[in-house]
Amino acid sequence: MTRYTELEVILSHEHADFDALASLLGAALLYPQALPVLPRRINSNVRAFVDEYQNELPFYQPQDLPRGHVQRAILVDTDGVNLVKGMDDETTYFVIDHHTRTRPMPEDWQVWSEPVGANTTLLVEKIAQQGEVLSPVQATLLALGIHEDTGSLTYAATTDRDARALAWLLAPAQAADLGVIARYLNFPLSQDQRQLLELLQEQSEFITVAGNNVLVAQADARNFTDEFSALAGRLRDRYELDALFLILEKHELVQVVARSTTDAIDVGQIARALGGDGHARAAAAPVRMHSRAETRERILKLLDEQLQAHPVQPLPRRVFQIMSAGLPRTLPPDLAVEDALALMRRYGHEGFPVVQMAGNGQSTEQALDAETGPILTHQLLGLITRRDVDRAFDHGMGGRPLERFMRAGQVTIDEDATLDDLRSLMAHSGWGQVPVVNDRSEIVGIVTRTDLIRQGEQALSLPFQPREVAHRLEHFLLPEHYHLLRMLGRQAASLDYTIYVVGGFVRDLLLSELLTTGHALDAGLLADDALANGGLDVDIVLEGDAIAFAQHIQEHFGGRTLTHRRFGTAKWLLSDPDNPVDAQPLLGHDDAEEPLLQSAALPPTLDFVTARTEFYTAPTALPTVERGSIKLDLYRRDFTINTLAICLNPRRWGELLDFYGGIHDLQRGAIRVLHSLSFVDDPTRMLRAVRYEQRFGFRIESHTLDLLRDSLTLLRRVTPVRIVHELERTLLEEHPEDALFRLDELGMLAQIHEDLHVAEAVGELFGQLRAALRTWGNQANSVGLQMLHTALRQAPLERLYWALLMLTLPPTIDQPLAQRLRLRNETQQLVAELRMLQQEVSVLMQVDLLPSQVAAILDRVAPVSIALWGVVHGLGEGMDRESLLTRLEHYIAEW
């Protein structure tokens, strides 16, 4: 009987990439008795590497294995078995794989699996621990494995272990060759592959499924013999995708190649349902007995079912997601206690890092007065808190330097640390304000105990995950606006900026989902709605330089920019006739010959604002503004429901920021200020509170209502321009009389002018005006009524409401109120003409009045006054058409 040699082999999956090949090598170095066997099919760039360095690599072709019985098979980067000769039922298996298990392993199989970005990382860590000596070629191949499976450390599944393993390979002792790595990671496509890629791009469709961006591309590939995986990689890297599916028609089947870049989509599961296999991020399936179109429908159905049935749990929150980003305001050690106290009172911070300034020649005073705000820093020395400063000052030590009283130390936290890490650090250090550092130990923000507490509260009730917000964005916006915001996110990321859409737009986006059925927002009726009148009225805030960003956008897409350097703001004019925007790259695909969407739907302008903070030097004064973080920027806002923000950067698309409980207040229908001095800082917020309360059917929260009542007298000190601005915005609401009645009830109107009140008749008059605007234009048998309707439509709506409101007040208030509010001359003239017509009404009703007599009266007033007077007297609602109405119509149309 022939006795066979007992063998151990190392195997990987077919269509092997560099992670599979590097894993074969790594396992061979750790288990030198085992023979690493190349798969029968490997990617073209991997094949080229093997061909070039075959004399320095230990790989066997399957047909070259020595005869013998395979006692053990080590499976790397896979848990699937590719049979080679010598394997049988007695072969045992050892799996080394970083992918999440999708099926149970046999009980007698040995498994080594850990969640890292590249399988090679597991083996490199073991090699480094054992002190193995690598040749440059071996180190280069192992580095290629990590690079390719982590997207050069950029994919979401990448871990710090991958980075450390790669760094070890690049160290001089191993000397991985970066030139070789770059050459094989960017391996050129063959002529056939380039032709097929062009076909796929021509037949690509971009679909959003539950907020995920998915590309589905089809092509007839019956005349192509090269492997397809490289094409999937090219398309994945070209577009910002969560997943892609290539559907390629072969002679007897349809080949599906799938890739995913998110934990939300497991393409391996979809491939197995189609009859193929793979792992969560890369998979393939040969589909028989189905056409390309049928395969597409099956893929989309499976994808939708997966996302509905298995929503991915959000990753742990990280420090960078809750910190105040940007170089924080810091204090030098030689600053006097009394100066520090003044700064703490100005900015409201409970603590400041104390740092030694960089050697830039600035004095402490120069640094504190710098326009950019924060002091340039060199070395963290400690932390000074408000309590420390108060105690020192109370003991008569206001002139002493801070370093005498600070908490010395260098407590920092990494921006990628988890909130559990932060909680532990604060507990052990006692620091309630911790500087945040990046991987170069540079301070990039600050995080406080309050941030942590608020985050814990929100985690209990936050109803919107990024995928849901992204889904809402797609359905809430016009396609052109959606693509425009995606472009802004990409461009901001290219400059290392973070960009957000904030305020009313986010509020309305979420409110349209939170409100019960039948109470969804009507965009055409909301004066502040981001989609009113078909435009895109959004507040865009950047953690970065908004002016530089606007100029960058202009250089790439055209248009014109207007800047205001003092406030760090910029306006991008998209419809500038001398330099129109280039709509093709703005709204279409990079390779498309025609724009995907219509440039006519673009908004005429977009405003960009640098994130900033502000403080008030006196009640009712305008604020002093300085550069800050998104969190500080949101703290400037009036009410919590307007402090919500959505990140537009690709890696954080749809991430919702809620530092101040805005979502909770939306859910319970509450108008709440952010702090107790909010109405003192800006009394016009009182008027705004009522406007939002009545618009949304909310109630002013009890503490906020108490603060409002305590601050009423401050309205007397507000300038007329600001008062009128807020009142006119109120008059543009759907039912402004509701807000006016509430303003009167709370005593606000009396603070504006002691005789300003809202009579019951106001509601009826306002309703008659809306009815006239709605119906008079439809009176086909009355040319005069149509002309009166035109006169009303041509006047600003708020002016008509103002006139009707004042008509219910005694005439003696007209002049004092006009002076107090500095009403426009046109409004005063309209009121005066209505008063005159009121005096002449008995004359105009006389039966035997001649046309010349009617004209003598009506010639003295504008058509809009005649029309509004008709509203007051109920024209069009059954009045005797032989009297007043007939005369007005004849006058307007004929006389």
How do the helices and strands line up, and which of them pair or pack?
Elements: E1 5-11, H1 18-30, E2 35-36, H2 44-53, E3 68-76, E4 92-96, E5 110-112, H3 119-130, H4 136-150, H5 160-170, H6 178-185, H7 191-202, E6 204-209, E7 212-220, H8 229-238, E8 243-249, E9 254-260, H9 267-273, E10 277-278, E11 282-287, H10 292-309, E12 324-325, H11 337-347, E13 351-357, H12 364-368, E14 377-385, H13 386-394, E15 407-408, E16 413-414, H14 419-429, E17 433-437, E18 443-448, H15 449-459, H16 466-476, H17 479-494, E19 498-502, H18 504-514, E20 539-543, H19 546-557, E21 560-564, E22 569-573, H20 583-587, E23 605-610, E24 612-615, E25 624-627, H21 630-635, E26 645-647, E27 656-657, H22 662-668, E28 670-671, H23 678-681, H24 684-696, E29 699-700, H25 702-710, H26 720-731, H27 736-745, H28 748-752, H29 761-775, H30 783-794, H31 797-807, H32 814-821, H33 825-844, H34 851-858, H35 863-872, H36 884-893
Parallel strand pairs: 1-2, 1-3, 3-4, 4-5, 7-8, 16-17, 20-23, 28-29
Antiparallel strand pairs: 6-7, 8-9, 9-11, 10-11, 12-18, 13-14, 14-15, 17-18, 19-20, 19-26, 21-22, 22-23, 24-25, 26-27
Helix pairs in contact: 1-3, 1-4, 3-4, 3-5, 4-5, 4-6, 11-13, 24-26, 24-27, 29-31, 30-35, 30-36, 31-33, 33-35
